[in-house]
Amino acid sequence: MLVLVDVHGSCVSRSCFNLIDQSKIQVQNFFSRNNIVSGMMPPAELEFSHGELLQHSSEYSERCMRFALNKQTVPTLLDSNAEYLVVDLFDFCQPVASYRDTTFSTYDYTFYNTAAYQAQKAQFAMIDFIDVPPCLWYCHVDRYFQLMMEKFKGKVILNRLSCSNIYLTGKNTIKDIPENLRFFGDSKYNHMLYDLENYIIDNHCPFVVDISKYFIPDEHYNADTTAVHYEEAYEILQSRIIMEIIEGNGRRYFDTLPLPYVSDLLERPVSDQEFLDIYSQRALPFETNTVLDYFFQVQEMDEVVKNRRFIASIYRQFYQAGAGRISCQETVEHVLNESVLWVSSAALKAPLVENFFQYLYKVNRFLKLGIPALYASFLSDLNGGNVPEWMFKLNLLSIVAPRYEDIPVYLSQFYQAVGDDFSLRKHCTGTTYLRKLG
Residue 401, class by beta-carbon neighbours within 10 Å (0-12 exposed, 13-18 middle, 19+ buried)? Predict the structure, then answer.
């Protein structure tokens, strides 16, 4: 059965559908260059001729401009027969025109060539939402998502974006994105986007795709290296996640990476110094929901850099070992058996490598206990105040038995206690959505 999807955002959310079977999922409407706040404001009531914009731009730009001025995006969405809506907030990364009691996007500046603007320049101002107190415009965000969550019956997907100011060149070096291209996205907006996205997630509970933070623009894949034109792997994974959501995966927050993706990101063909430059701006990729993450997430960055090829090989081997195996314990044991030669290799006698295998042996020992015994051991350590041990076992249980007994409650309490709002948000997104449904 064909599923229709509307997209309100940027090409970052639209282009992944080119990789999806069009006989199963199709984009019906695509609205860009119209941020959701300006879209909720009154029409601008300005007139200009069709040719005024086409003289400097394209049919597509002219359509975007008309929808922005006349506020046609929201009414069209509310009249749509699509089943899902995908939204991103990239259009907050550019200033908008302010005119009387409204604002509208002028992404490509063609509007400033029109007679409507030239005749009353003093009536217009440029504003940037990053400079406006949220208390003045979050009300429009709320109203937009209230309407869309009701219209699409909760089937709204928020595609989180993180702008990158660096890119991978065709010569496999890392360079800064030139200043003249940062009008089309700049990392200075990331904090505002992050806060706004969190607000939307906490208050409206859409599905969430949160993987852009791991990727950078790549000249090999897209010569137009602006802040959100990420590597090819991003689009491939994004399309798979969209399909998972539509096929009914059951989760509402998606930010984990497949194991091979971690290996590929660690093995980017750049120098160690450039690798450090990347991860001074982007999120480390140790988010696979496997026992590997708990160890590597807490390592010093210089140790990750020195051992990144070893770490990549471990994630790859863990992926290969897990194929066809029914339990995490079987996978861990297989990796340990296969890695005996690694441990004896003089080239791999680094402290991180030795500590990792000690950790993995410990994981294997506790997994062999079985879930009930592991849970009982966790409770014993928790009641006895053995903090390192109960934290280790709680993490292990969160991976192998996340819904066993009171594990969800303990996880929620732990995230609250340590102030880990991000993990708490991921953990509670689905629960909060169900609670809102009553």
Answer: middle
- DSSP type of residue 232: H
Asked whether 212 and 13 are in contact (CB, 8 A), the reply is no
- Specify the pTM: 0.92
CATH number of 1-255: 3.40.50.1110
Q: Which two tokens stand for residue 127?
A: 């504003």
Residue positions counted in the chain: 438
pLDDT band of 56, cuts 50, 70, 90: low
* Residue 431 in tokens: 């629960």
- Could you tell me the residue ranges of all domains in the chain? 1-255, 261-365, 369-438
Please enumerate in sequence order all residues whose Cβ is within 8 A of that of 388, keeping only pairs 6 or more positions apart, or say none: none
Query: Looking up tokens 């294997």, which residue turns up?
Result: 364
* CA pair distance 9, 264, nearest whole angstrom: 28
* Residues in Cβ contact with 337 at an 8 Å cutoff, skipping those fewer than 6 apart: none
Structural contact between residues 178 and 127, judged by C-beta atoms closer than 8 angstroms: no
Encoded amino acid at 135, one letter: C
Model confidence at 437, in pLDDT bands (50, 70, 90)? very low
